[in-house]
Write a structure and sequence with these properties.
The protein is an alpha+beta fold. It has 6 helices and 11 strands. Strand 2 and strand 3 form a beta hairpin.
């Protein structure tokens, strides 16, 4: 079953730089077997929700944006002396919730935890598995989506995500300003100018 899933995905991947493969009727055992087969590969993101499986291969643009956001966010946290733990694309999963996800980036803020406080998702292709439902089941407090060169922020309140204009975790972070630095083509210029900007806040 695991080999067949990968074969189907690879056939799709040859036609597109960034591709999503979704299939249903996948047991938790097969999901975990697939994770073991892929190992620590950074070439794929795997998501699982109630027997629905998604494998995504991020494009170059996707990864450039992901890395840019991570570097800028971490610079902000360092400058503001906010304790954080970057967990990257660590696989988050809970068998009893039938949910699993590999975020583009995720962070524990304030202190280290099993489940991160913040997950970041870069969106280049529409559709796919219900990402917010997965994160809700896992108990991730805040999810940032980066799409069309802007952020959409969802915060978990009373077991439901509410879209907000600002982060609850980092209320003083100007996300509109952060977005302007994400899209600067030169990563070195972006991080230098961003550090200057946040140093005077």
């Amino acid at each position: 079953m695991t080999s067949a899933l990968l074969k189907d995905f690879f056939q799709l991947k040859t036609r597109n730089n960034e591709e999503r493969f979704i299939t249903s009727g996948v047991t938790w055992r097969v999901y975990e077997s697939l994770l073991a087969t892929l190992g620590n590969s950074s070439s794929y993101r795997v998501a699982y929700l109630s027997q629905t499986l998604e494998i995504m291969s991020p494009s170059r643009s996707h990864e450039l944006d992901k890395k840019a956001i991570a570097r800028l966010l971490e610079a902000y946290l360092e400058e503001k002396r906010i304790h954080f733990w970057g967990l990257g694309s660590t696989t988050l999963r809970a068998r009893d919730k039938q949910a699993g996800k590999e975020p583009d980036e995720c962070y524990c803020i304030g202190n280290s935890k099993d489940i991160p406080d913040l997950a970041l998702e870069v969106i280049y292709t529409s559709g796919g598995i219900d990402t917010l439902e997965i994160y809700k089941r896992l108990g991730v407090g805040e999810v940032w989506f980066w799409q069309n060169q802007q952020f959409a922020i969802y915060c978990l309140h009373n077991n439901s995500y509410q879209q907000q204009t600002q982060s609850t975790l980092l209320p003083d972070l100007d996300l509109a300003l952060l977005a302007k630095y994400v899209i600067i083509n030169d990563p070195l210029e972006a991080i230098i100018e961003w550090r200057k900007q946040i140093a005077v806040d």
